[in-house]
Amino acid sequence: MLKQTLLKATEAGAVQLRHFFNGTFAISNKEGINNLVTEADHAAEKAIMDTIQAEFPDHFILSEESGELKQDSTYKWIIDPIDGTVNFANGIPICCVSIGIEKAGKMIMGAVYNPFMNEFYFAEKGAGAFLNDQKIQVGNKTTLIKSCLVTGFPYTYLDAPNGPLQVFEKLIRKGVPVRRLGSAAVDLCWVAAGRFDGFYEHKLQAWDSAAGFLMVEEAGGKVTDFKGDYYSPYQPHIIATNGHIHDELVAVVNGGPF
Ligand code: IPD
Ligand code: CA
Ligand code: CA
């Protein structure tokens, strides 16, 4: 039932993404230049929340545009109605609906759907990660220098010492390809699918990574904070890799030599 509702809610959100994509929609600005929210974000969020609440009216919901809908429940749905809104607003088809479900504080299920690339990712704790129903597995590169990475840049907070630009520069100067797709949820799914060997980002919110980090873990990868410790989506730092290059990437992100 939980899984069915998750899939249904993700699809309901994606219907709104398809409806508005490349059309005309209202856009407004949040904190920071170009930190956008569109009419499509709100419509997708409503469709997702309506679907969840129809089945589970007593579950806790945390959603990017509406905040917390507090309930005394062991279940918590964590929703990003559009991850990659800037891409979406510019007609760039790298964006998705992302929904994670926590039970008693542990992520147990996640779905990420990019309807423009026809890629539906699903993960369940202990049962694996899937792309369009096919099991996926992280990549097998063993050295950072041979890896293909992805990162993202926050709308604010770029100039901190050893911040996003410095880490990026260090990797790029060594010739390591570091892509920037503009959707943390897609980045994580692409690590899970073995397209990237690693992803790191300095300032994410719980809704950006909730479903994606489970996807990486269930595909056999490793996800930690910047210290290399247990990952919680309620703190900003993330390093997600195929496992083999994890310690090397943790060291570089912390300003170590490379
Ligand atoms: C953003 C994307 C982006 C990341 C930003 C997020 P949004 O989410 O995930 O890749 O770099 O930090 O805020 O605003 O498109 O939902
Ligand atoms: Ca997001
Ligand atoms: Ca969003």
What order do the helices and strands come in, and which of them pair?
Blueprint: H1 2-20, E1 27-29, E2 36-38, H2 39-55, E3 60-63, E4 67-69, E5 75-83, H3 85-89, E6 96-103, E7 106-114, E8 119-124, E9 128-131, E10 134-135, E11 149-151, H4 164-173, E12 178-179, H5 184-192, E13 198-201, H6 206-218, E14 222-224, E15 238-241, H7 246-253
The chain binds D-MYO-inositol-1-phosphate and calcium ion (CA) (2 copies).
Strand order in space, largest sheet: 4-3-5-6-7-8-9-10
- Rounded average pLDDT: 96
Helical residue percent?
Answer: 25-40%
How do the SSEs run, as a string of H and E? Answer: HEEHEEEHEEEEEEHEHEHEEH
**Strand percent estimate:** 25-35%
Q: What is the C-level CATH assignment of the largest domain?
A: Alpha Beta
Q: Tally the beta strands.
A: 15
Q: How would a crystallographer describe the biggest sheet?
A: 8 strands, mixed
> What would CATH call the architecture of the largest domain?
2-Layer Sandwich
* Rg for CA atoms: 17 Å
